[in-house]
Amino acid sequence: MFAVTGITGNVGGQVARNLLAAKIPVRAVVRDTGKGAEWKECGCEVAKADINDAAALTAAFRGAEAVFVMVPPSFDPSPDFREARAIGATLRTAIDGARPGRVVYLSTIGAQAEKPNLLTQHGMIEKALGDAAVPITFLRPGWFMENCSWDVGPAMDRGVIPSFLQPLDKLVPMVATADIGRVAAELMQETWKGRRVVELEGPRRITPNEIAATFGELLGKPVKMEIVPRESWEELFRSQGMKNPEPRVRMLDGFNEGWIEFEGGARNGKVELREVLQGLIAGAARS
Which structural domain range is residue 233 located in? Predict the structure, then answer.
Protein backbone atom coordinates (compact mmCIF):
# COMPACT_ATOMS: atom_id res chain seq x y z
CA MET A 1 0.00 0.00 0.00
CA PHE A 2 1.30 3.45 -1.00
CA ALA A 3 -0.12 6.42 0.94
CA VAL A 4 -0.61 9.72 -0.91
CA THR A 5 -1.32 13.06 0.76
CA GLY A 6 -2.62 16.03 -1.23
CA ILE A 7 -4.45 13.61 -3.50
CA THR A 8 -7.29 16.06 -4.21
CA GLY A 9 -4.83 18.54 -5.75
CA ASN A 10 -3.02 18.59 -9.08
CA VAL A 11 0.27 17.01 -8.00
CA GLY A 12 -1.10 14.50 -5.50
CA GLY A 13 -3.75 13.44 -7.99
CA GLN A 14 -1.09 12.89 -10.64
CA VAL A 15 0.94 10.79 -8.20
CA ALA A 16 -2.05 8.61 -7.41
CA ARG A 17 -3.07 8.14 -11.04
CA ASN A 18 0.45 7.05 -11.96
CA LEU A 19 0.52 4.56 -9.10
CA LEU A 20 -2.89 3.16 -9.95
CA ALA A 21 -1.82 2.79 -13.58
CA ALA A 22 1.10 0.70 -12.30
CA LYS A 23 -1.40 -1.53 -10.41
CA ILE A 24 -0.15 -0.33 -7.03
CA PRO A 25 -2.75 -0.08 -4.22
CA VAL A 26 -3.17 3.47 -2.99
CA ARG A 27 -4.32 4.92 0.31
CA ALA A 28 -5.79 8.37 -0.25
CA VAL A 29 -5.02 10.63 2.70
CA VAL A 30 -7.62 13.42 2.80
CA ARG A 31 -8.79 16.07 5.23
CA ASP A 32 -12.41 15.59 4.18
CA THR A 33 -13.61 12.04 3.54
CA GLY A 34 -16.26 13.43 1.21
CA LYS A 35 -13.51 14.57 -1.13
CA GLY A 36 -12.06 11.09 -1.02
CA ALA A 37 -15.19 9.55 -2.53
CA GLU A 38 -13.96 9.73 -6.12
CA TRP A 39 -10.73 8.03 -5.12
CA LYS A 40 -12.63 5.32 -3.29
CA GLU A 41 -14.49 4.69 -6.54
CA CYS A 42 -11.10 4.28 -8.22
CA GLY A 43 -10.28 1.51 -5.76
CA CYS A 44 -8.28 3.51 -3.22
CA GLU A 45 -8.44 3.03 0.51
CA VAL A 46 -9.35 6.34 2.17
CA ALA A 47 -7.78 7.67 5.39
CA LYS A 48 -8.77 10.93 7.05
CA ALA A 49 -5.92 13.07 8.37
CA ASP A 50 -5.00 16.74 8.59
CA ILE A 51 -1.42 17.87 8.05
CA ASN A 52 -1.42 19.28 11.60
CA ASP A 53 -2.75 16.11 13.28
CA ALA A 54 0.16 13.85 14.22
CA ALA A 55 -1.99 11.00 15.51
CA ALA A 56 -4.17 10.88 12.40
CA LEU A 57 -1.14 11.10 10.10
CA THR A 58 0.58 8.32 12.00
CA ALA A 59 -2.44 6.09 11.48
CA ALA A 60 -2.62 7.06 7.78
CA PHE A 61 1.07 6.30 7.21
CA ARG A 62 1.23 3.08 9.27
CA GLY A 63 1.72 -0.04 7.20
CA ALA A 64 2.52 1.90 4.02
CA GLU A 65 5.35 0.67 1.84
CA ALA A 66 5.87 4.25 0.64
CA VAL A 67 4.37 7.65 1.50
CA PHE A 68 4.10 10.77 -0.64
CA VAL A 69 3.99 13.89 1.50
CA MET A 70 3.09 17.37 0.38
CA VAL A 71 1.99 20.29 2.52
CA PRO A 72 -0.65 22.89 1.60
CA PRO A 73 0.97 26.04 0.17
CA SER A 74 1.30 28.99 2.51
CA PHE A 75 1.80 32.32 0.75
CA ASP A 76 1.48 34.50 3.85
CA PRO A 77 3.45 32.87 6.67
CA SER A 78 4.31 34.38 10.01
CA PRO A 79 7.64 36.25 10.08
CA ASP A 80 9.25 33.41 12.08
CA PHE A 81 7.74 30.68 9.87
CA ARG A 82 6.16 29.08 12.93
CA GLU A 83 3.60 27.26 10.76
CA ALA A 84 6.30 25.40 8.82
CA ARG A 85 8.15 24.56 12.02
CA ALA A 86 4.97 23.07 13.48
CA ILE A 87 4.23 21.05 10.33
CA GLY A 88 7.80 19.74 10.26
CA ALA A 89 7.52 18.58 13.86
CA THR A 90 4.13 16.96 13.21
CA LEU A 91 5.34 15.12 10.12
CA ARG A 92 8.44 13.92 11.94
CA THR A 93 6.31 12.56 14.79
CA ALA A 94 4.03 10.78 12.31
CA ILE A 95 6.89 9.28 10.30
CA ASP A 96 8.75 8.16 13.41
CA GLY A 97 5.57 6.64 14.79
CA ALA A 98 4.37 4.93 11.63
CA ARG A 99 7.77 3.90 10.23
CA PRO A 100 6.66 3.55 6.59
CA GLY A 101 9.07 1.84 4.22
CA ARG A 102 10.16 5.11 2.60
CA VAL A 103 9.00 8.71 2.10
CA VAL A 104 8.98 11.12 -0.83
CA TYR A 105 8.48 14.72 0.33
CA LEU A 106 7.51 17.37 -2.22
CA SER A 107 9.92 20.22 -1.53
CA THR A 108 11.00 22.95 -3.95
CA ILE A 109 13.85 24.40 -5.94
CA GLY A 110 15.88 26.64 -3.66
CA ALA A 111 14.96 24.87 -0.43
CA GLN A 112 18.67 25.08 0.44
CA ALA A 113 18.89 28.85 -0.13
CA GLU A 114 20.37 30.69 2.85
CA LYS A 115 18.48 33.95 2.33
CA PRO A 116 15.04 33.85 4.01
CA ASN A 117 12.13 33.78 1.55
CA LEU A 118 8.81 32.02 1.00
CA LEU A 119 10.55 28.75 0.08
CA THR A 120 12.42 28.72 3.40
CA GLN A 121 9.40 26.87 4.76
CA HIS A 122 10.37 23.77 2.78
CA GLY A 123 13.98 24.04 3.88
CA MET A 124 12.81 23.97 7.49
CA ILE A 125 10.64 20.91 6.90
CA GLU A 126 13.50 19.17 5.07
CA LYS A 127 15.68 19.79 8.11
CA ALA A 128 13.03 18.39 10.45
CA LEU A 129 12.70 15.20 8.39
CA GLY A 130 16.26 14.80 7.12
CA ASP A 131 17.56 12.49 9.84
CA ALA A 132 14.41 10.39 10.23
CA ALA A 133 14.97 6.66 10.59
CA VAL A 134 13.34 5.85 7.25
CA PRO A 135 14.69 6.49 3.74
CA ILE A 136 13.48 9.87 2.51
CA THR A 137 13.70 11.66 -0.84
CA PHE A 138 13.23 15.41 -1.12
CA LEU A 139 11.80 16.09 -4.57
CA ARG A 140 12.61 19.68 -5.53
CA PRO A 141 10.74 20.83 -8.65
CA GLY A 142 11.17 24.18 -10.37
CA TRP A 143 8.55 26.90 -10.83
CA PHE A 144 5.23 25.23 -11.67
CA MET A 145 4.10 25.86 -15.26
CA GLU A 146 0.56 25.74 -13.87
CA ASN A 147 1.25 29.04 -12.11
CA CYS A 148 0.33 30.43 -15.54
CA SER A 149 -3.31 29.78 -14.61
CA TRP A 150 -3.23 33.34 -13.21
CA ASP A 151 -2.22 34.57 -16.67
CA VAL A 152 -5.10 33.06 -18.66
CA GLY A 153 -7.62 35.80 -17.85
CA PRO A 154 -5.31 38.74 -18.60
CA ALA A 155 -4.08 37.06 -21.78
CA MET A 156 -7.61 36.44 -23.04
CA ASP A 157 -9.14 39.72 -21.90
CA ARG A 158 -6.41 42.30 -22.53
CA GLY A 159 -3.58 40.56 -24.29
CA VAL A 160 -1.28 41.83 -21.53
CA ILE A 161 0.09 39.64 -18.72
CA PRO A 162 1.61 41.24 -15.60
CA SER A 163 4.97 39.64 -14.80
CA PHE A 164 6.76 39.44 -11.47
CA LEU A 165 9.44 37.32 -13.13
CA GLN A 166 11.92 39.73 -14.70
CA PRO A 167 13.76 40.58 -16.85
CA LEU A 168 11.35 39.24 -19.41
CA ASP A 169 14.05 37.45 -21.38
CA LYS A 170 15.49 35.61 -18.34
CA LEU A 171 15.31 31.83 -18.54
CA VAL A 172 13.43 30.30 -15.60
CA PRO A 173 13.46 26.62 -14.52
CA MET A 174 9.83 25.52 -14.85
CA VAL A 175 8.11 22.14 -14.77
CA ALA A 176 4.61 20.76 -15.33
CA THR A 177 2.68 19.12 -12.50
CA ALA A 178 2.21 16.07 -14.72
CA ASP A 179 5.98 15.57 -14.72
CA ILE A 180 6.17 16.12 -10.95
CA GLY A 181 3.47 13.53 -10.31
CA ARG A 182 5.03 11.01 -12.68
CA VAL A 183 8.51 11.36 -11.21
CA ALA A 184 7.22 11.28 -7.62
CA ALA A 185 5.38 8.02 -8.34
CA GLU A 186 8.54 6.57 -9.89
CA LEU A 187 10.63 7.61 -6.88
CA MET A 188 8.16 5.97 -4.49
CA GLN A 189 8.74 2.67 -6.28
CA GLU A 190 12.52 2.87 -5.94
CA THR A 191 14.61 1.71 -3.00
CA TRP A 192 17.45 3.72 -1.46
CA LYS A 193 19.12 4.37 1.86
CA GLY A 194 19.10 7.51 3.97
CA ARG A 195 18.40 10.99 2.63
CA ARG A 196 18.58 12.04 -1.01
CA VAL A 197 17.60 15.07 -3.08
CA VAL A 198 16.10 14.82 -6.56
CA GLU A 199 15.69 18.07 -8.51
CA LEU A 200 13.35 18.38 -11.47
CA GLU A 201 12.66 20.88 -14.25
CA GLY A 202 10.96 20.72 -17.64
CA PRO A 203 12.51 19.83 -21.00
CA ARG A 204 14.06 23.32 -21.22
CA ARG A 205 13.99 26.65 -19.44
CA ILE A 206 11.38 29.26 -20.29
CA THR A 207 11.32 33.06 -20.38
CA PRO A 208 8.31 35.20 -19.47
CA ASN A 209 8.32 36.46 -23.06
CA GLU A 210 7.98 32.89 -24.31
CA ILE A 211 4.96 32.37 -22.08
CA ALA A 212 3.29 35.42 -23.65
CA ALA A 213 4.22 34.34 -27.17
CA THR A 214 2.82 30.84 -26.59
CA PHE A 215 -0.42 32.27 -25.24
CA GLY A 216 -0.59 34.46 -28.35
CA GLU A 217 -0.17 31.46 -30.66
CA LEU A 218 -2.84 29.47 -28.85
CA LEU A 219 -5.30 32.36 -28.61
CA GLY A 220 -4.65 33.63 -32.12
CA LYS A 221 -3.95 37.21 -31.05
CA PRO A 222 -1.02 39.31 -29.82
CA VAL A 223 -0.13 38.77 -26.15
CA LYS A 224 2.73 40.47 -24.33
CA MET A 225 4.26 40.53 -20.89
CA GLU A 226 4.33 43.70 -18.81
CA ILE A 227 6.73 44.08 -15.89
CA VAL A 228 5.19 44.78 -12.49
CA PRO A 229 7.63 47.28 -10.92
CA ARG A 230 9.53 45.84 -7.96
CA GLU A 231 8.78 48.89 -5.80
CA SER A 232 5.03 48.24 -6.09
CA TRP A 233 5.03 44.63 -4.92
CA GLU A 234 4.71 45.05 -1.17
CA GLU A 235 1.80 47.50 -1.39
CA LEU A 236 0.13 45.36 -4.05
CA PHE A 237 0.39 42.17 -1.99
CA ARG A 238 -0.90 43.94 1.13
CA SER A 239 -3.86 45.25 -0.86
CA GLN A 240 -4.62 41.62 -1.70
CA GLY A 241 -4.85 40.79 1.99
CA MET A 242 -1.33 39.63 2.82
CA LYS A 243 -0.07 40.50 6.29
CA ASN A 244 3.56 39.55 5.73
CA PRO A 245 4.46 39.95 2.05
CA GLU A 246 8.24 40.07 2.60
CA PRO A 247 8.86 36.31 2.13
CA ARG A 248 6.95 36.31 -1.15
CA VAL A 249 8.81 39.39 -2.36
CA ARG A 250 12.15 37.81 -1.47
CA MET A 251 11.21 34.57 -3.25
CA LEU A 252 10.57 36.51 -6.44
CA ASP A 253 13.85 38.35 -5.92
CA GLY A 254 15.55 34.98 -5.61
CA PHE A 255 14.29 33.77 -8.96
CA ASN A 256 15.03 37.09 -10.65
CA GLU A 257 18.49 37.52 -9.12
CA GLY A 258 19.42 33.87 -9.58
CA TRP A 259 20.06 32.79 -5.99
CA ILE A 260 17.04 30.51 -5.99
CA GLU A 261 18.44 27.71 -8.12
CA PHE A 262 18.98 23.97 -8.09
CA GLU A 263 21.65 22.66 -5.77
CA GLY A 264 22.94 20.04 -8.22
CA GLY A 265 22.01 18.72 -11.63
CA ALA A 266 18.25 18.55 -12.19
CA ARG A 267 16.42 15.85 -14.09
CA ASN A 268 14.40 16.94 -17.11
CA GLY A 269 10.70 16.30 -17.50
CA LYS A 270 8.84 15.63 -20.74
CA VAL A 271 5.87 18.03 -20.77
CA GLU A 272 6.26 21.23 -22.78
CA LEU A 273 4.82 24.62 -21.85
CA ARG A 274 2.47 24.63 -24.84
CA GLU A 275 0.67 21.52 -23.61
CA VAL A 276 0.16 23.02 -20.15
CA LEU A 277 -1.15 26.33 -21.51
CA GLN A 278 -3.54 24.50 -23.84
CA GLY A 279 -4.98 22.72 -20.82
CA LEU A 280 -5.31 25.92 -18.82
CA ILE A 281 -7.07 27.71 -21.67
CA ALA A 282 -9.43 24.76 -22.19
CA GLY A 283 -10.19 24.71 -18.46
CA ALA A 284 -10.98 28.41 -18.45
CA ALA A 285 -13.31 27.95 -21.42
CA ARG A 286 -15.24 25.24 -19.57
CA SER A 287 -15.66 27.28 -16.39
Answer: 2-286
